[in-house]
Amino acid sequence: MTSSRYSAAAGIVAAVIILAFVGWKAVLEYVDSLVVASDRFLITLSGLLVAVFGCQLIIARAVRPLLSEIEARITAGELPDSTRDFIKVGPHVGWIERFILFVFLVAGSPPAAALVVTAKTLARAPEAKEGGKLVGDYYLIGTLVSVAAALVAACLTRLILGLPPL
What we know:
mainly alpha; 7 helices; extended
């Protein structure tokens, strides 16, 4: 048995012991009071889902004109095949980026959010450079629209929660 299976088994045993000790009803009431009955939790979760997944449509629309040109250049052999991999990973990186940005911004920590964008740039910019100006433009537009979407969603969420926008 691997260590991850031992950890999972230990977690299950701990959960069973807690449930046996306090009872199902007490656990369900606690979860209900903590999560379900809390408007703040549901508002924040809704804002997070809109930022991460809902804004993907806006970002895709912003970069769509560049995607067809990039694909044509890859097919023509003007851009390396690795560019296709760079493009495919973009939406997934964007989801993670917007998730982290949203959390930091709703928590009121714009400097931490700026570090996320900086880290992404350091990690992805060299690959974007390999594809030339067109791929660089795709990366820049995608990143800017993604950051703007996370910022707007976080500010709106903070306003709905009764907090200052930032």
